[in-house]
Structure formats: C-alpha cells, structure tokens
Amino acid sequence: MTTRTVSKASWIYTVVSLLMVCVFLFPIYWMVATAVKPATEIFANPPKLIPTNVDFTVWQTRIFENPRVLRYFVNSLILGFGTTFLTLALAAPASYGIAKLPIRGKSFLLSISLVSLMFPAIMLALPFFVMFSRIGLTDSYAGLILANTALALPFAIIVLRPFFLAIPNELTAAAQIDGCTPFGAFVRVVLPLATPGLFTAAVFTFLFGWSDLVFALSLTTEESMRPVTAGLWNFIGSNVTQWNAVMAFSTLAMLPPLAVFLVAQRYVVAGLTAGAVKE
C-alpha cells in the first residue's frame, strides 16, 4: 500500500469519525440551543439550527428563581455521592475476596453478579416499595441510596475484580510479614494500587445514583425528596409544555455528571484500559 493510499484512507477515517461525533453531539447541542430560544423560534418551521434571538428569561423565572430546583440538585448530589460511597465500601472487599481469597463458590457469586445486571430497575421497584414502606424507608435518602446501590453493586464488583487480580500476592504477603493484618494490607497496599479501578467504579456508580428515575418516582411521594430526574417532570405539563424551560433544566442537570467525569477522566481511562486485559 502506497503512502498516498494510506493518507487518503486516513482522511476518510477522519471525516467519518467527525460525522459520527457530530451525530452523537447534535442532541446535546439542540438541547442547549433550545434552552436559549424564545417560544416563537422553538416551533418555527423550518426549525432554526442557530438561535437568532437569545433569550434567558426562562432561566431566570423558571430555574434560578425557583427554590425547588436547588432542592432537586441537593437531593441528587446526596443520592449520587451516597450511592457511590456505599457501593465502593461494599464492592471493594467483595471483589477482592472473589479475586484473591480461597472462597468456595466464587464462580457462582460472579455469575450471580452478571445475571443481576440483566434485571431492569422496574422489576425491583415494587418489591423495594413493599419492603421500605413497612420499615419506614420511603421518602428517605437511605431508602433511595439502598435501592440505587442494589443496582450499582454488581456492576462495581465486576469492574473492580480485574484490578485486584492484577495485584501480585507477594505484595500483600510482604505487608503481613511487616506486621499488617490481612485487612490492614488490603487498606494500605491493595486499595492504593487499585485507585484507577476505584475511580472508574465511582464515576459509573455516581451516574447510577444521579440518573435514576424509576426509584425516584416509586419510592418518593414528597416533593422535597425528589431528585433532578423526577423534578424534570414538573416542567412537562399535561396540555402545554414550556420546552425552553425543560431544556434549560436538562442542560443544568447535565453539568454535575460532566464535572465528575472530567475530574476523574485520567483515572477512568486508565481503569478501563487496565480492566480490559483478561488475567
């Protein structure tokens, strides 16, 4: 293959890649553009790709001056970080035990984790509602965090297991020779070495907690306990919907997960690369 042919092929791949990126990013652009359009431009025919009259009125009246919006975001942050901390606290020792400890039935436990990922949240919503209503966990952060953790935990175990498999047993043995207990070796030696995997699992479990809608609707009845995903329904009316307000709220709801991913991006990329190798 000549240099000219290789150069032409690389240009074709570049153009195709740019087109695919534009296709994936266009809905996000349309959301942001609609958030600053007046109602006349939103329903214009043909649609206007670029806003000609930028209008931030809905941002002020429906978003920044609405006290419920701040409450939605506070609830989502509590649920997101609470789900992350609880999931990692349970998944790290569980995945380490499956990877390193001589436990009977490890293959069965791993299979159960894989199978549980196939269950949609709606299948668990009714059982959780029945259980939580009897023990007083509906309309509470604890109930929502536990429900989200039930979905995120199997995924976190599967993500973390390859990282613990890649850590040599000699390191934990050396730590125990120096006086560490098995748990101390796990905390002081194993967990720091598995930092990329922990960040990878943390980002995805945060997204589990932030983006949940099924449990947010089924386990809460009080408006003050609802997160961003459930609060978005208040902007959609039965007869008339103010779409610029819906898109403004959606744009604002996109920022915290984006910020979390950008902060942990370096660790997430390293974690996904390391976890791709089968031991």
Automatic annotation (TrEMBL):
UniProt key word Kinase: no
Membrane-spanning ranges: 12-32, 72-96, 108-129, 141-164, 185-210, 243-264
Domain ABC transmembrane type-1: 73-264
Membrane topology: Multi-pass membrane protein
GO biological process: transmembrane transport
Protein's recorded name: ABC transporter permease subunit
Family: Belongs to the binding-protein-dependent transport system permease family.
Keywords: Cell membrane, Membrane, Transmembrane, Transmembrane helix, Transport
Keyword Electron transport: no
Native source species: Rubrobacter tropicus
Superkingdom of origin organism: Bacteria
Gene Ontology CC, one term: plasma membrane
Compartment(s): Cell membrane
Pfam family, one: BPD_transp_1
